[in-house]
Amino acid sequence: MTTFHADSSITRTFWRYAIPSIAAMVVSGLYQIIDGIFVGHYIGFEGLAGINMAWPAICILGALGVMIGMGTGSVMSIYRGQNKLEKTKVALTTGFWLLVILSLIAIICIVFLAENILHAQGAEGKNFEFAVDYINVLMFGGFFTACATALPMLVRNDESPNVATFLLVVGALINIVLDYLFIGVMGLGLSGAALATLIAQAVVTVLGIHYFFTKRSSIQLTMKEVLFSRNKAKQSLALGSSALVMYMYGSFVVAMHNALMMHYGSATTVGAYAIVGYLFMLYYLLAQGIAEGAQPPISYYFGSQENKKVYQIFKLALKWVTITGIAWVGILNISPEFTTALFTNGDQSLIAETIVGIRYHLFAIFLDGIIVLVTIYFLSVNEGKKAMVISISNIIIQLPFLLILPKWFGIDGVWLAMPISNIALIVCIAPMVWNHLKTQKIIQPMPLAAILQHTNHV
């Protein structure tokens, strides 16, 4: 039974999905942020640099989870909008099989390529050792990393956003307790951080899969129904591929920044970049939560051809990713010392470099929220190619800025590359969104007579 009732207000529908999605995304990010807090306090900048250099390798599994979670979730919502329950079930179980197959392939690739990825970023000495320890532990259960990313998205698309949030809260709480035990008490370093994350993700995976076989799920799978469909797999991968590229773009950008920070700065600079990344993540996950919360109703209303409601949901999401982004910039610039202190043990050089990063790297952070919203919007309306174009453009457009600005401005140029490239990208994608809304008749252009009449009244 669908929850998109005809008599429900658009605002109520939007927030019903957005609030649990925001909570879920922010809580999911606590895995990394909590690790960063404990590592920063108990190990210092070398540990922060190590975990940041390990991230591009680990990110491959998270990217697969996002691709399957978003792609399969979109297919599920579209079929639910068309009241096709059996196809919804096949789409879901195909997503399960994709998680198993692709995560195993990814683990093999990471094991063989991890050290090369670290060396390419300039990792050396202690930060290299820390990063290797972190990766090696996580690879023992890399399957759980992909599943713990995808399953809450799939649960949310099964009309259970609160259950999805519950899964992530449970995982985050387990991670907090185990981080303190393994890092603070037992002194296991980054290996302890990785082990804490792995156990938490395993719990989320087991609970998430179990949910779909219970009466709480509208799908209520049985073991006989765990089928694989090649067509559904292609459909899910096509729709989720832009999310994969978007996530891998984040990994690529982190790797390039790490390499440039080591070249123009030091391991302390990379540690500062890790802290700035955690502060960036808090907003980005909130914005992604808003966007992913808008995805189920947008997909549903698009499937049922209620175009006016598609536009209303999109407009609400755009409003809030912009407002929250601007507010976060203000908070960070008013009290940078306070936010930085959460991740340090009093290292003044690390704090000073982090404040520079906040000023230069995060001043246009709200544009990242708009970009992720537009990408997920196109994915939600079955326009995977347009979403892919934006994701690829997001990578390509940063390269010249990362290559040129540091030569002109040194380390400040590295910090400035991302926000300036985002400004350029927004200028390019704004017309694409507007034209799509008009072409699909999601918005109606105001007739010339109405415009003239409105002008005369003014």
Automatic annotation (TrEMBL):
* TM ranges: 14-34, 54-78, 90-114, 134-154, 166-188, 194-214, 235-256, 262-286, 316-335, 360-380, 387-409, 415-434
Primary residence: membrane
| GO terms under cellular component | plasma membrane
How does the entry describe its membrane topology? Answer: Multi-pass membrane protein
One Pfam entry for this protein is MatE
- Keywords on record: Antibiotic resistance, Cell membrane, Membrane, Transmembrane, Transmembrane helix, Transport
InterPro entries, sorted? MATE_fam, MATE_MepA-like, MATE_MepA_subfamily, MdtK-like
- Would the keyword Amino-acid biosynthesis be found if you checked this record's keyword annotation? no
Q: Which GO terms describe its biological process?
A: response to antibiotic
Localization in the cell: Cell inner membrane
GO terms (molecular function) for this protein are: antiporter activity; xenobiotic transmembrane transporter activity
NCBIfam families according to UniProt:
matE, PRK09575.1
Task: Give the UniProt family note.
Answer: Belongs to the multi antimicrobial extrusion (MATE) (TC 2.A.66.1) family. MepA subfamily.
The protein, known as? Multidrug export protein MepA
Question: Origin organism of this chain?
Answer: Aliivibrio logei
Q: Which gene encodes it?
A: vmrA
